[in-house]
Amino acid sequence: MRDKGTERWSTYESFFVSLGDKRVADIVITNHARTRYLDRIEHGGKDNDEIAAWMWECLKQDRIKPYYRNEQDVYLIDEDIVVVAEFTELESELDITGNILHKMIIVTFLGKMSETMELRDLKTYYSWLRHSRRMTLIKNSRKRK
After folding, report:
1. Helices 31-40, 48-60: crossing angle, 10 deg rounding
2. Per-residue pLDDT reduced to its tens digit, 102-114
3. Are 94 and 100 in contact, with CB atoms under 8 Å apart?
4. pTM of the model as a whole
5. Which helix (DSSP H) or strand (DSSP E) does residue 23 occupy?
6. Are the CB atoms for 87 and 105 separated by under 8 Å?
7. What are the contacts of 18-22 at 24+ separation with CB within 8 A?
8. Are the CB atoms for 10 and 22 separated by under 8 Å?
9. Which contiguous run of DSSP H or E holds residue 26?
10. Of 42, 51, 59, 97, which is the most exposed, with the fewest CB atoms less than 10 Å away?
11. What phi and psi values does residue 106 have, to the nearest 5 degrees?
C-alpha cells in the first residue's frame, strides 16, 4: 500500500492510515484469510492484492472499527464483516514525525454478522466452540476405549 502512485504526477497516497493507536502503512493477507474471504465474504476469484487494496480503501474511509471497545485484534468492517488482524512494527520505518509504522496482518475473516448470528457475541461463540470441541474429544475418546 505504500508509495502507490495516483493519477496526478508526483503525488502519492497517504503513507499511513491510523487505526486506533496503530499507524498502518502496509497490509498483508495470509493464505488462510484469503481462503476464508472467498468462502465467507465474496465468492469470486480475488487475489491477495485485490483484497489488500479493498482493505486499504476501508481503512482510508474509516470503515474499520474495533469489535469491542478495548479489543486489539478483532475488527468490524461496515459494522458487518468480522476480521481478525495482528500488527507488527515495520523495522526502520517511521513517519515524518518519527512515529513507528505498523504492518496489518489479516489472519482471518470470520464472516458476516448479517449471515452468521453467532458472530454478534464473539465471547459466547468462542466459549461454545471450545465446549463443543471438548465434548467431541470426550465422545471420541470413549469410542476408542
Report:
1. 80
2. 899 999 888 888 8
3. yes
4. 0.71
5. strand 22-29
6. yes
7. 19/59, 19/64, 19/75, 19/104, 20/66, 20/72, 22/87, 22/102, 22/104
8. no
9. strand 22-29
10. 97
11. -80, 115
